[in-house]
Specification:
about 400 residues; alpha/beta; 7-stranded mixed beta sheet; 17 strands; globular
């Protein structure tokens, strides 16, 4: 079908919850995509950071195909090898305790919220259930994770929201101390605020929050839905910051293209959730965990992670080297980058890049967000920068 034919049927049958770009994608290879009309694109978005190993990676495709011929789903009433293997890899790589598998980042964050509140209830009883998050944060689109999100524009329409959240200023320890009162059980934050504009937190602030949590017995929850699985040049971004969280959430890149989320808890709190307190029908299915195992085997490798850092530095330098006054800076870490532009010009730049064959994302008010596949090659990065030169000229 042509794009127009697909768009016509989409408008008839699919809820209009997305302002989609005017293309319909058909297939991919590496960091390249082709639409139904045959036009080729360099992908600097990777499905919003999901396709960590790019498109048609044989390791992921073969793992999914092999598992699909054995078992796709049996529910969590039974044990399966792919689930246990994926959990073991995550625990071994981080030195933490145990894993709960879910289906998305929002579900992972919901699980972390429940874990934190039960941890505090078990130890202190009622009345200690507030979770402090940061302003400009984003933690998901369920009714609870919307409330956890520290952006007022998400707190509309869907009343009543789940209560028990408050918001501190990022990089302001006094603000966190003020909000983390006697009713607080946890602090939850992204180390790089992705949807908020690709804003890395100050390292000193993060270490100070960690110390505050230890002092007050608050669980430190790090949302790594976007920063995890090699995106910032370490398996998890918290490893770049030199901290030890109590709980880490993840999703996106973990499945290499299939839906998966996970809650990774330290030994101090990994046994809080017991049978009957949390569950999921599809979480940890053998199919998605087979994909996750293939991704972890590829990404959790020092040479692979070093290459992510090198590629990120290279791409940043090439973009800054364009020398356009419209590029006000590049920030981020690893292959999670943002080109800073004037807010009123951003949409024009994004659409011009799309027209010329480069797919990018947006974040915050003035950021063009880049989340390319971690396997992207230098030739594709160079080709993308050459197109950026035309657009920003």
């Amino acid at each position: 079908m042509t794009y127009q034919e697909l768009k016509s049927e989409e408008q008839q049958y699919v809820m209009n919850t997305y302002a989609r770009f005017p293309i319909a994608l058909d297939r991919g290879e590496g960091a390249r995509l082709w639409d139904v009309e045959g036009k080729e694109y360099i992908d600097l978005a990777s499905g919003i950071g999901v396709n960590a190993l790019g498109y048609n990676d044989p390791r992921v495709a073969d793992a999914i195909a092999e598992q699909a011929h054995k078992l796709c789903h049996v529910s969590n009433l039974y044990t399966t090898a792919p689930m246990v293997q994926a959990a073991k890899k995550l625990v071994t790589a981080t030195g933490m305790g145990k894993v709960f598998f879910a289906n998305s980042g929002a579900e992972a964050n919901e699980g972390a919220i429940k874990l934190a509140r039960k941890y505090s209830y078990d130890k202190y009883g009622e009345g200690r259930n507030k979770i402090v998050t940061l302003r400009n944060s984003f933690h998901g689109r369920t009714v609870t994770t919307l409330k956890a999100t520290g952006q007022a524009r998400f707190h509309d329409f869907f009343f009543p929201f789940t209560e028990g959240f408050d918001y501190a200023q990022a990089d302001n320890l006094d603000s966190v101390k003020e909000k983390a009162d006697a009713s607080t059980c946890a602090v939850m934050m992204e180390l790089i605020q992705g949807e908020g504009g690709v804003l890395p937190l100050d390292r000193g602030f993060v270490k100070a929050v960690e110390a505050l949590c230890r002092e007050r017995d608050l669980l430190l929850i790090i949302d790594e839905v976007q920063t995890g699985i090699g995106r910032t040049g370490a398996l998890f971004c918290f490893q770049n910051y030199g901290i030890k969280p109590d709980v880490v959430t993840m999703a996106k890149g973990l499945g290499g293209g299939v839906p998966v989320g996970a809650v990774l808890a330290d030994t101090s709190c990994c046994d809080v959730l017991v049978p009957g307190t949390h569950a999921t029908t599809f979480g940890g299915s053998p199919l998605v965990c087979a994909a996750a195992n293939a991704v972890l085997d590829a990404v959790n490798n020092p040479k692979f992670l070093t290459a992510v850092c090198e590629k990120g530095n290279y791409l940043r330098d090439r973009i800054l080297g364009i020398g356009s006054p419209d590029i006000q800076g590049v920030r981020g870490m690893g292959l999670m980058l943002a080109i800073l532009v004037e807010p009123e010009k951003r949409a024009g730049f994004v659409n011009a890049l799309l027209e010329k064959g480069v797919l990018v994302l947006t974040a915050g008010q003035n950021a063009i967000r880049l989340l390319p596949p971690l396997t992207i090659g230098y030739a594709d990065m160079n080709a993308a920068v050459e197109i950026m030169k035309e657009v920003f000229a």
